[in-house]
């Protein structure tokens, strides 16, 4: 059984980007820029945003945090986004979700210039993904594709079972893997909470992707030998042995399933670190498109 090391892979990708950015700076005197828009004081959002900004600065990418008051009106927020849509210093715009209740998230995402949609949530990006056109791919599923590629895990003709159908993980990863192209071309099944017996599907998986948010939902009885496991879930469970009193685990019972798996992503340190790496990669892609 081989561990898929997302932490190392993400570090490799960041280093590759750092080199490309320093090359771009030397040849054109320009660097990619990412603006992150944070509305309100959600503590988890603040942590994520700070991680993104730190990651940008580590690879020489220009970044800015646009911190807005919780009470900002939808109209004012749309106006600010429009300014960034037209600001040549920023090639990527990220609006940290969730937004306060009085703001329509769909409207905000649709107001982004699709050329700067580095989160890949704009309907144009999603539509292009579904019909197999080049576009910005949303970062967590894009990170999964990159892990499969870099670990030489063949997906062609393989049965991939995705558990979870969210717009940020389940649906986009299924759409990426089903494309008739190199690195995809899989036979894909999507499961969700209405499946009467999940194990009927999971037992057939050559590659199982769990994006549910239920600790240890997938047990060793539910998978076949040599399965490749991609565990997207991040769940906090009580742990009296840890100082914090809790620990993070995935949707997969790592210990049990490891006995059968050929490859498995740990939690933490698997899919998680890839998300920011792919955000940086998308911002670099936006820079190349806009500046060329
Ligand atoms: P979500 O929007 O809550 O979607 C969960 C999906 O799981 C839904 O489609 C739901 O079905 C399905 N589901 C729930 N219980 C189920 C069950 N018992 N059997 C089968 N399907 C079930 O979650 P998400 O945003 O996709 O996130 C999923 C997990 O990934 C979370 O733990 C989240 O923290 C983690 N995550 C990690 C990263 C990262 O590593 N960077 C990024 C994003 C998310 P219905 O549609 O029928 O409700």
The number of distinct helices, counting runs of at least 4 residues, comes to: 10
Quick one: overall form? globular
Which molecules other than protein and nucleic acid are bound? NADP nicotinamide-adenine-dinucleotide phosphate
Mean pLDDT across residues = 98
Number of strand segments: 11
Order of helices and strands: EHEHEHEHHHEHEHEEEEHEH
Structural account:
The chain has 292 residues and is α/β, with parallel strands linked by helices. It contains ten helices and eleven strands. It has helices at 6-28, 43-58, 74-85, 105-111, 123-130, 139-150, 170-178, 198-202, 254-258, 272-291, and strands at 2-3, 33-39, 62-68, 92-95, 159-163, 187-191, 207-210, 228-231, 235-238, 246-249, 263-264. The strands form three sheets. The protein has a six-stranded parallel beta sheet. Helix 2 (43-58) packs across helix 10. The termini are far apart. The model has no long low-confidence stretch (mean pLDDT 98). Bound molecules: NADP nicotinamide-adenine-dinucleotide phosphate.
Task: Summarize the helices and strands and which ones pair or pack.
Layout lengths: L1 E2 L2 H23 L4 E7 L3 H16 L3 E7 L5 H12 L6 E4 L9 H7 L11 H8 L8 H12 L8 E5 L6 H9 L8 E5 L6 H5 L4 E4 L17 E4 L3 E4 L7 E4 L4 H5 L4 E2 L7 H20 L1
Parallel strand pairs: 1-11, 2-3, 2-4, 5-6, 5-7, 7-8, 8-11
Antiparallel strand pairs: 9-10
The protein binds NADP nicotinamide-adenine-dinucleotide phosphate.
């Amino acid at each position: 059984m081989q561990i898929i090391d997302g932490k190392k892979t993400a570090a490799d990708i960041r280093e590759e980007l750092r080199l490309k950015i320093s090359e771009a700076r030397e040849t054109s005197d320009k660097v990619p820029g990412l603006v992150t828009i944070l509305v309100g004081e959600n503590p988890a959002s603040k942590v994520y945003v700070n991680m993104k900004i730190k990651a940008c600065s580590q690879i020489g990418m220009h970044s800015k945090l646009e911190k807005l008051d919780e009470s900002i009106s939808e109209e004012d927020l749309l106006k600010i986004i429009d300014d960034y849509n037209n600001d040549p210093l920023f090639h990527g715009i990220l609006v940290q979700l969730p937004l306060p209740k009085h703001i329509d998230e769909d409207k905000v995402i649709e107001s982004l210039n699709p050329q700067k949609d580095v989160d890949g949530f704009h309907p144009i990006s999603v539509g292009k993904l579904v019909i197999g056109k080049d576009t910005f791919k949303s970062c967590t599923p894009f990170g999964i594709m990159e892990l499969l590629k870099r670990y030489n895990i063949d997906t062609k003709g393989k049965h991939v079972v995705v558990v979870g159908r969210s717009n940020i993980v389940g649906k986009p990863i299924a759409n990426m893997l089903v494309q008739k192209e190199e690195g995809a071309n899989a036979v894909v099944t999507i499961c969700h909470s209405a499946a009467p017996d999940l194990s009927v599907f999971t037992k057939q998986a050559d590659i199982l992707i769990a994006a549910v948010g239920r600790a240890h939902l997938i047990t060793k009885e539910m998978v076949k030998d040599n399965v490749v496991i991609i565990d997207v879930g991040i769940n906090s469970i009580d742990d009296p042995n840890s100082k914090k009193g809790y620990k993070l685990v995935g949707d997969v019972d790592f210990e049990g399933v490891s006995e059968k798996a050929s490859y498995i992503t740990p939690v933490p340190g698997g899919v998680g670190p890839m998300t920011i790496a792919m955000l940086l990669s998308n911002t670099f892609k936006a820079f190349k498109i806009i500046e060329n």
